Structures are given as structure tokens and as C-alpha cells.
Amino acid sequence: MTNKPGTIAFPSKIGVFWNSEPWPIADAQIMAREIEALGYGSLFMPEGGGKDALVESAAFLGATERLVVGTGIANIHFRLPTAAESGARMLTALYPGRFVLGLGVSHAPVVEGSFGGAYRKPLSMMRTYLERMNSVPVELEPGSRPTRLLAALGPKMIGLSGELADGAHPYLVLPEQTRHTRAVLGDDPWIVTEQAVAIGGSAADQLRRAHSHLAPYSRMDNYRNSWLRQGFDDTDLVNGGSERLTRALVGMGSAEDAAASVTAHLDAGADHVVVQVAVDAPTDDPLPTLRTLAAALDL
Question: Which helix (H) or strand (E) holds 274?
């Protein structure tokens, strides 16, 4: 693809999505170096309010040599838009081509419960946030505007990701949804899709981990509505997802089966896919699975 906005120097087309918040940052930096050594091209992390994703990004960028680091996502309720833009510009200036600012509107229960904020119309909130980011003077770290991706599931947010951002960061979607996002955005904007996997152990163990992984999302309207748009129905929206939904969204079986679920998004038009290992607890080590998967992906 040509003429893409921003520059992201992914060393490979497959990266990692990992919730690093529960890990001491020094241990998380060691993990980032291991991920880079395995041949993965990126490390994306969520922001749940426990740690600042921009500070974590700086730590991971400083600990590695080529790894692209992305926020998946930086919560727009967590910081002012001018702070997000200026912080991201500094990271981009320090590590050209290696930082991606993923932005998202989060979820009403999180914003109104944990943050004590107000969750208004997501689309208009995001549009206003991006416009205010654009108000930061160009003289602040000139030439270092960060590459921005939006957590875009619905049609209007996907449209906005091509209008005021540089592309989309789809999460918990089928390859068909990645293909749809590409059709909406056209060739130039970036698409970095997340793909969950659960391999190793018995088939029952894999399914249990996959259900556990989906459980919190199955209670969030954003994801429930996304899954309904992708062809699922109300019977699939049980806690943890139905078996049909779970097997469709989470790569299970052999390492080769899981690898195929990852590359399916590349075939559907993603520029880069980040693999998320479904684990029993947030402090579980994802490296054994990532090593096995790296071999299956021939990284």
C-alpha cells in the first residue's frame, strides 16, 4: 500500500497485544525485549486507568531497539487532548516510526464508575477530542505528529478514523470485519487488528480461557453491538460469549490453527495484526504461547 499517513516502521506484520498494567514496569520491559527477540514487530497495550499508557510506551521504547509500541487504546477520558498530542509528539520525535497513538472512547460503566466522569455521545466526543489535538501549535516538536488510530467498531467511528485519524485499530472482530473496514477506509489508512488466541492444554482448557477472556467484553454495549453487526444474535451474547461466538473470535486448536486466524486478517486487508494471549490471570506469563506461535508464524 502507498501514501499511508504517518510512518510506522513495523519490523514484521505480526505484533503482540499485552495488558502490562499488572506487571512491575522493570519486568514488563524485560517482556518487551523478549517479544522483540522473538520477531514480533510491535507491542500494543490497553489503558485501564491503572497506569499511564504514554509513560508505559516510553519505557518500552527505551528498552527495545526496533519494536513499534502502540497504545491500544489510550483512553480519551484519561487525559486532555492537548496533553495526549504533546506527549505523543515527544515520543514520536524521540523514536521516529516506532510509536502509534491508539485512541478510544472506552465504555460507559468504566468512565462513569471507575473515573466518575460523564459518558456522552462517543462519536462527537471523539471528533471534538481530535479537533482539539489538532489545535496544538505545529511549532511544538515540528514534524513529529503521531500516527493516530481509533478503536473503531461502528460505521461512523470507522469513517472518522479515516477522516481525522490515520486509520483504525479493530478489536475482537472477524476477518470479515477487517475486510469491511478496509473497504470503507480505502487503501491508504492503517488498519492494525487485534486477534486473541488460546492454545496449549486440552480443548476444554482452551475454550475455558477463551470464554474467560471474552467475559468482560460480553457485558459492554460497544462489543455486543459490534458482534450483532457482524452476524451474531442475542443467543451469542451470554456472559463469556456463546461457543459459536467464542470459536469465531478466538484462535484455538493447534499453533498452526491459531496462526491461521492471525493471517486471515492480513489476507482481509490489515496492515498489521497484534496477537493477544488469553490467560487465566493477568499476571500469567504469555511468553510460552508467544514462542510457540512465533514458530508457527515463521517469525
Answer: strand 272-277
